[in-house]
Amino acid sequence: MVERDLRMFLQFKFLIILRAIWFAAQIAFFGLIASRMVVPALADIYFEYYVAGVVIMMLYSTSVFIGYDIFEEAEHGVFEYLLSLPVSRRELVLGRSIGGGIRSFIFVGPLIAIALFVIGLENPLNFLIAFLALFLFAFGVSGMSITIAVGLKSSDHFDILMGVLNAFIIRLSTTMYPQTFVQDASQAYAVLTNFNPVTFASDLFRWGVGIEKYLTMTPMPLAAIIGLVIFFFTFTFIGVTIYERRLEGGGWQ
Question: At what angle do helices 89-119 and 66-75 cross, to 10 degrees?
Fold first, then answer.
């Protein structure tokens, strides 16, 4: 199942190329220009901060994509074939979550290499820890996408909900701006940001590449790792349970 999901993802060459262009444009245009809007002495620092945030946004968006695969399979009647395979429902769902996470890393891996070239790397051990933790983030996001897709069984509702969810989960995180500025804007925003898995992943990646000293918040990699572990187990096992119950019975729109 993992191998099948990987092969399916590589078939979307046009989408992969467009995502790569989006990544390059975000860094080469938006990142460079927006960094000049902050205090001039901090422009280079913010640029590194933003590049790390774009990597996490890409990892999130590619992990979410497996939910759209599920609707494609429902539309083309692939579910019946999958259900006829000699594997249990639980193995089927776990394979999909793992496949969704791994294929996201296959796509984001070269982008991470570009980010390291731009930012640099101070402590390889910290980066290895952060890199492994990001796998949990990718698997958790894939599980979340699967859970929502099979729960709704409607591609229109899924598309709308994911758009709204993405708007909140990315904006109320530290991918684009430090926690201190979120707190200055609103205490309520800051509270939500503190429990956002995208914040955990962003802070961990910045800690891993050695730019946590530029952050205005106290780095807490252990708290971020614990948060990602909870996020991974929650959506992996909830996804398995819901997928097992909702996979059959029709009703796909």
Answer: 140
